[in-house]
Amino acid sequence: MRVVLLGPPGSGKGTHGNGLSAELHVPLISTGDILRQAIAEETRLGMAAQADVKAGRLVADETVLGLIETRLGLGDAVNGFLLDGFPRTVAQADGLAGLLQAGVAKSLDHVVNLVVSAETVVNRLRDRWLCSSCGAIYNLRSKPPKVAGQCDLCGSALKQRADDEPATVRARLEVYDRETAPLVAYYAKRGVLRNVDAAGPAEQVYGAIRRILRPAA
Ligand code: AMP
């Protein structure tokens, strides 16, 4: 199963992607996570991407395509993958199509478009906290941790993402509308777009995605 999770920041790509990855036994590949890790480790990629990630701007297409080519070439992606936060531009989508045609992986089965309003996104990201160790995602309103400030799964401290602060979220949403939203028409034209209303409760949205990816289950 080869799937792209499309949708603005805060639409639930990571939250649902984590569950789907475990259930479908395919890796969740998030270019944002790869870049944040590179920044934390101060690698050459991290140093080059740092300023753009901090400001909510897109990292150069060639850079992101290079890291996706490497990642899709790893053994665990042979039988499928869920892409979170990639592609984000038409050039990246064309680059991905080229990689798939060249046999780095096979063609996409579904592009799941998580549809949600800008207002919902700003509110969700203001309340989003992440585990500093395992990356589990919480929301103070809809999915609070059992113990304040602590991950339910591993007990590590929770933290907020620097780019989830409202002014940067607004910049990221503008970038999304300008650069990424055209991918909705791009994938609709190719017959793989599946729209999901992502404004409701998480279990409902997860169920809707699951029905698309596993219609017989
Ligand atoms: P995300 O975790 O998907 O919200 O991504 C966080 C940040 O990483 C974005 O605001 C961009 O600066 C950068 N980024 C992640 N994925 C991409 C991508 N596919 N193309 C360009 N920049 C990206």
Summarize the structure.
47% of the residues lie in helices and 15% in strands. It is of the alpha/beta class and 217 residues long. It has a single domain (2-216), classed as P-loop containing nucleotide triphosphate hydrolases (Rossmann fold, 3-Layer(aba) Sandwich).
Amino- and carboxy-terminal Cα gap: 14 Å
Any idea what the CATH architecture is? 3-Layer(aba) Sandwich
**What is the CATH C-level name?**
Alpha Beta
Q: Identify every distinct bound molecule in the structure, by name, code or SMILES.
A: adenosine monophosphate
| Biggest pleated-sheet summary | 5 strands, parallel
Rounded to the nearest angstrom, the radius of gyration is 17 Å
Shape: globular
User: What is the SS-derived class?
Assistant: alpha/beta
Question: What's the arrangement of strands in the largest beta sheet?
Answer: 2-3-1-4-8
The number of helical runs is 9
This entry's quaternary arrangement is: single chain
- Element order: H for helix, E for strand: EHEHHHEHEHEEEHHEH
Number of domains: 1
Average per-residue pLDDT, rounded, comes to 93
Q: Unreliable segments (pLDDT under 50, ≥5 consecutive)?
A: none
CATH superfamily: P-loop containing nucleotide triphosphate hydrolases
Per DSSP E runs of 2 or more residues, the count of β-strands stands at: 8
Helical fraction equals 40-55%
